[in-house]
């Protein structure tokens, strides 16, 4: 069987390699010390090195090729983008209170599925507000404002 | 025994009862729904535990965890679509029974076997925790380091078809765990100037991002629920006397197998259910062959996975070493309340420990009582379109994450980990080992430091005691055994 590059291993290993090298390099800034008297950077240095080595090994094994490489698991990019935008919207709007933030995050993430129609999205958004209010504000008595004036 | 004096008095308070009930209800619902796992639900409700009494929050999270084991079999039996990975085996005989018009019986057997399995697991927990904790008290840093390393590597590699990927995720998790104040020296590490990172990456943000956002996005658009047309009546659930008799031994066998497997780190409820089924196939003498709709094939795995879900608490609570991502969340919830799981927990916080055990009893009983009449409700839940759940879940992730510290920074963290999680998951990397590395990495560091300073820098100090050596060698053996065949058969395998 023909050997093909397994890009998932290579990419994933590459991420680990990048993280590992970054932390490895940064850990020297905190002092290494000796094994007997470790300074703050010792363990992170080891951890970073471990991550880099593991990542490199995986990436190389991916490049060497396997017979049936894993294919990237399909997911809906639209769902991802909408989910991330929804969280961002919440983060930006929460200063105005829960109401706007919840409406925005629910509506934006609902757009993530093309089958959702405008009316359904609106109902979901309103429903979310009620749910959040009932659970977090009423039942759990959390110090969250539905509407916050910041003028 | 303290369970009766302390435990039940704590667990039978209105507060604790309510949240235990909520937990098992949510857990079963989530277990029923394919695509939304116990971990996602535990992650979503994890921030809530911050605002609750420790026992209530823990009882709730635990309820979700073992409740999901009950619910997972429902979709397996009715739709041949497992609601949780550990229910995949139940689908084999369960769905066959369904096709024979005996879905009610299958559901009943699954529920009853789950109850027996859970009960045996709790009994194991009650009797084994004391001795194991006593053992743990005798442990020092070398032993702890070795056990933590073993647990981490086991949970990252065992039962996974790509152990190397698990190790990579573990390493990333350990690295991320280094962010924040170093407890020994007080130096702030890797904060990149962000004052919000001084206390480290917020665990809730990480969990919400990886499991709340990450897994939910990956499931989006993938499930359009099949319609469950059959109505299940209460009467149809009663099994025949013969079936009851045939189900007893498999249930007991599964419970014991599951109890043992659950204690070991790295082996989860999924492995327990496969083991239970496998044992049944080898040892069981069934009139109806397994695979063609034998109640034995439903009873054994269901008993096993529920037993395993209970005994998984043993190492988590008595040794402070969680063996799976779900246990890591429970572990995290304990830490948030200032309770350090470990050998001292039973003696220092007996009300929490025994209160939890009591809540397990209550929860398992609730599940037995609830699941039988509520089958119709669960069946209807299965027809809820995922596209409605998804936005609500994302919003709950946001509110939950924000509610911990009223910090928008935590939201950005969750966003980052959500994106990172999706990228890694689409590359076939599982998020669970990352969480374990993140939570246990700092623990490993402390014990590593102590060991090395005790041995004056001699690396062989790690092998200083027999227990430590055993676990470290076991770890090495595990890694070698799992990795070597892969490279040897790489030409014919993957």
Please explain how this structure is put together.
The complex is a heterodimer of chains A (151) and B (494). Chain A is mostly helical. Helices cover 64% and strands 0% of the residues of chain A. Chain A has five helices and no strands. The longest helix of chain A is centred in the middle third of the chain and has 23 residues, at 42-64. The radius of gyration of chain A is 24 Å and the shape is flat. Chain B is mainly alpha-helical. Chain B has 20 helices and two strands. In chain B, strands 1-2 form a two-stranded antiparallel sheet. Chain B is globular, with a radius of gyration of 22 Å. Residues 488-494 of chain B have low confidence and may be disordered. The interface between A and B is large, with 82 and 75 residues.
Question: In brief, what are we looking at here?
Answer:
The complex is a heterodimer of chains A (151) and B (494). Chain A is an all-alpha fold.
Percent in helix of chain A:
55-70%
- Class by helix and strand content of chain A? mainly alpha
Q: Characterize the biggest β-sheet of chain A.
A: none
Structural class of chain B: mainly alpha
- Which word captures the global form of chain A? flat
Kindly report the spatial arrangement of strands forming the biggest sheet of chain B: 1-2
**DSSP strand content of chain B:** under 5%
Number of separate strands of chain B: 2
């Amino acid at each position: 069987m023909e050997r093909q590059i397994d890009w998932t291993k290579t990419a994933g290993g590459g991420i680990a390699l990048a993280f590992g090298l970054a932390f490895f390099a940064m850990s020297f800034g905190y002092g290494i010390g000796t094994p007997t008297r470790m300074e703050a950077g010792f363990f992170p240095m080891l951890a970073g090195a471990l991550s880099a080595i593991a990542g490199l090994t995986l990436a190389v094994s991916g490049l060497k090729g396997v017979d049936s490489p894993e294919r990237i698991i399909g997911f809906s990019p639209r769902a991802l983008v909408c989910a991330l935008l929804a969280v961002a919207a919440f983060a930006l709007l929460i200063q105005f209170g829960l109401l706007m933030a919840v409406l925005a995050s629910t509506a934006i993430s609902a757009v993530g599925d093309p089958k959702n129609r405008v009316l359904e999205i609106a109902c979901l958004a309103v429903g979310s507000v009620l749910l959040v209010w009932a659970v977090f504000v009423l039942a759990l008595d959390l110090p969250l404002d539905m509407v916050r004036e910041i003028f | 025994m303290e369970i009766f004096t302390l435990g039940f008095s704590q667990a039978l308070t209105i507060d604790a009862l309510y949240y235990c009930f909520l937990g098992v209800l949510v857990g079963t619902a989530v277990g029923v729904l394919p695509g939304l796992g116990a971990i996602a639900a535990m992650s979503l409700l994890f921030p809530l535990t911050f605002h609750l009494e420790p026992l209530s929050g823990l009882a709730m999270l635990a309820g979700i965890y073992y409740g999901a084991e009950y619910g997972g079999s429902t979709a397996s039996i009715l739709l041949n679509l497992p609601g949780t990975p550990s229910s995949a085996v139940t689908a084999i005989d369960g769905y066959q029974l369904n096709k024979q018009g005996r879905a009610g019986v299958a559901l009943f057997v699954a529920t009853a076997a789950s109850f027996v399995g859970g009960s045996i697991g709790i009994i194991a927990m009650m009797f084994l925790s004391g001795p194991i904790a006593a053992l743990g008290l005798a442990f020092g840093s070398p032993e702890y380091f070795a056990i933590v390393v073993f647990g981490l590597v086991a949970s990252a590699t065992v039962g996974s078809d790509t152990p190397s990927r698990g190790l990579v995720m573990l390493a990333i998790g350990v690295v991320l765990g280094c962010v924040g104040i170093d407890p020994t020296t007080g130096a702030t590490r890797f904060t990149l100037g962000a004052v919000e990172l001084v206390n480290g990456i917020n665990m809730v943000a990480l969990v919400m991002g990886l499991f709340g956002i990450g897994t939910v996005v990956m499931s989006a658009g993938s499930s359009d629920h099949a319609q469950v047309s059959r109505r299940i009546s209460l009467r149809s659930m009663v099994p025949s006397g013969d079936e009851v008799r045939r189900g007893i031994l498999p249930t007991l066998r599964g419970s014991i197998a599951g109890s043992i497997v659950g204690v070991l780190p790295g082996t989860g409820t999924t492995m327990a259910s496969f083991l239970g089924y496998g044992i049944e196939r080898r040892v069981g003498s069934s009139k109806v062959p397994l695979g063609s709709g034998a109640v034995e094939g439903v009873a054994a795995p269901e008993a096993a996975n529920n037993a395993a879900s209970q005994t998984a608490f043993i190492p988590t609570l008595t040794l402070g070493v969680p063996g799976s991502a779900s246990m890591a969340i429970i572990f995290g919830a304990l830490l948030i309340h200032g309770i350090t799981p470990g050998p001292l927990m039973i003696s220092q916080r007996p009300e929490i420990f025994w209160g939890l055990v009591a809540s397990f009893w209550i929860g398992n009983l609730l599940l037995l009582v609830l699941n039988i009449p509520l089958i119709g409700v669960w069946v209807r839940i299965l027809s809820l379109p995922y596209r409605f759940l998804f936005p609500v879940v994302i919003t709950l992730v946001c509110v939950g994450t924000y509610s911990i510290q009223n910090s928008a920074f935590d939201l950005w963290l969750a966003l980052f980990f959500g994106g990172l999680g999706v990228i890694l998951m689409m590359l076939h990397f599982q998020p669970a080992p990352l969480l374990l590395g993140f939570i246990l990495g700092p623990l490993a560091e402390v014990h590593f430091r102590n060991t090395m300073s005790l041995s004056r820098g001699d690396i062989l100090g790690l092998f200083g005691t027999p227990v430590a050596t055993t676990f470290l060698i076991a770890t090495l053996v595990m890694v070698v055994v799992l990795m070597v065949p892969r490279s040897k058969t790489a030409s014919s395998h993957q």
